Amino acid sequence: AGPCTVRVSKIEARCLTLHTLDDHPEAGRISFRAEDVPGGVSFRIRSRARASSYFNLMGYVLLGKAMQTRLWSRLIERAAHALSGELRGK
């Protein structure tokens, strides 16, 4: 749908945070975090973003929400597979 650039704004041992740049359809940040839990690891994605314009909000409502859900679900599935893990509590 066009450029979607981000900048890495924070790197910790188990967390990566990205901030959107001006040409991104959203304005905000997203963090990826892994935490030890009994019997495994929990991987979480926390988004704190909003549409950067009315046009982008309409795109998100019509197509973007489903696309993002699929995108982040696949990222988690692939991370689990790459680490020889399994998903629980989908």
Describe it for me?
The protein starts with 5 loop residues before the first strand and ends in an 8-residue tail after the last helix. The chain is of the alpha+beta class and 90 residues long. It has a 4-stranded antiparallel sheet. It contains 1 helix and 4 strands. The protein is globular, with a radius of gyration of 15 Å. The mean pLDDT is 86. The chain has one helix at 54-82, and strands spanning 6-12, 15-20, 26-37, 40-51.
Present the secondary structure layout.
Layout lengths: L5 E7 L2 E6 L5 E12 L2 E12 L2 H29 L8
Antiparallel strand pairs: 1-2, 2-3, 3-4
Outline:
With 90 residues, the protein is α+β, with helices and mostly antiparallel strands. 32% of the residues lie in helices and 41% in strands.
Order of helices and strands: EEEEH
| Average pLDDT level | 86
Q: What is the helix tally?
A: 1
Work out the strand percent: 35-45%
Class by helix and strand content? alpha+beta
Stretches where pLDDT is under 50 for at least 5 consecutive residues are none
Number of strands: 4
Distance between the termini: 28 Å
Shape: globular
| Main pleated-sheet profile | 4 strands, antiparallel
Give the spatial strand order of the biggest sheet.
1-2-3-4
Helix content: 25-40%
Rg, Å, rounded: 15 Å
